[in-house]
Write a structure and sequence with these properties.
Radius of gyration: 20 Å
Distance between the termini: 20 Å
Order of helices and strands: EEEEHEHEHEHEHEHEEEHEEE
Helix content: 10-25%
Number of domains: 2
Structural class: alpha/beta
Shape: elongated
Largest sheet: 7 strands, mixed
Length: 271
């Protein structure tokens, strides 16, 4: 999805699959334009190029870009002969010459390093404060849980005043499967609520495994807070496991409203 100056751009396709822009961009163009990219599939990258190139031809207008979820951010390195796709996507976006780029909740610092004129925002920090109030989280006895060192690095300094525990997982980079998970500080959790916090949920296997381990060491209610949640969460085990994860809280950066009451979606614009 491409939004230009708060208006969604409509696209169509010719019979052979070629894209055309159905919205009159000229009527929306301003001297200082803002594009929002809500990535749904790779077509959005092509559409982003068409819109930006058209704006470039309108009297040298300036244009900023806000990326609700950075596509390919999970592939932020090369390992076992894998392709460093994030690098190539960032090179493509850089070629469009935005005045500024704001990325919400990047998966790692690699995105920030690869994108030109890049800044970051962390709506999860505000989301967490809303969740704490809603679930009756007690900062004196309850805990935040970071599933890995990356999540701890990303959020710990931004969430001061909380008690924290950390997981250390071993993942098979080829299959994506987690082979083991160790919790540091496990002796502290007994009788406490726990909020798991991370940037991205797909099918939710990491969080189900985390919740199982947390339950084993005495956690009571467990909640999940993630910045980006894919539609595939509905195909995983989280919706059918309320005994493990009581409620999921996320933003609308990827997922759209659905009928599962256990997934509460906040609009990023409200955070």
């Amino acid at each position: 999805m491409i939004i230009l100056n708060e208006e969604k751009i409509d696209f169509g396709q010719f019979p052979n699959g070629e894209t055309f822009i159905a919205t009159n961009i000229n009527l929306l163009a301003m001297q200082n334009n803002k594009i929002i990219l809500k990535y749904e599939n790779d077509n959005d990258l092509l559409r982003l190029m068409f819109v930006k190139k058209h704006l470039d031809g309108l009297n040298s207008l300036s244009c900023s870009l806000a990326i609700l979820y950075m596509p390919y951010s999970r592939q932020d390195r090369t390992e076992d002969n894998s392709v460093f796709t994030l690098k190539h996507v960032c090179e493509f976006i850089n070629s469009l010459h935005f005045t500024t780029i704001v990325v919400n909740e990047p998966h790692s610092d690699v995105t920030i390093a690869l994108l030109n004129n890049c800044m970051t925002k962390y709506p999860t920090v505000d989301l967490l404060s809303k969740v704490v109030d809603e679930v009756g989280f007690d900062k004196e006895k309850d805990y935040l849980f970071y599933p890995d060192a990356g999540a701890q690095k990303r959020y710990s300094s931004k969430n001061s005043g909380y008690k924290e525990i950390v997981g250390f997982k071993k993942r098979n980079f080829t299959t994506g499967r987690i082979e083991s998970l160790q919790i540091v500080g496990s002796e502290l959790v007994n009788g406490s609520k726990v909020i798991i916090i991370d940037d991205l949920c797909s099918r939710g296997g990491t969080f189900i495994l985390s919740a199982e381990r947390l339950k084993e060491i005495g956690a009571t209610d467990i909640y999940l807070v993630v910045a980006h949640c894919e539609e595939t969460i509905l195909e995983g085990d989280i919706p059918s496991s309320p005994h493990l994860i009581t409620q999921v809280f996320t933003t609308d950066s990827i997922i759209n409203p659905n009928s599962d009451a256990r997934i509460k979606i906040f609009q990023e614009s409200d955070l």
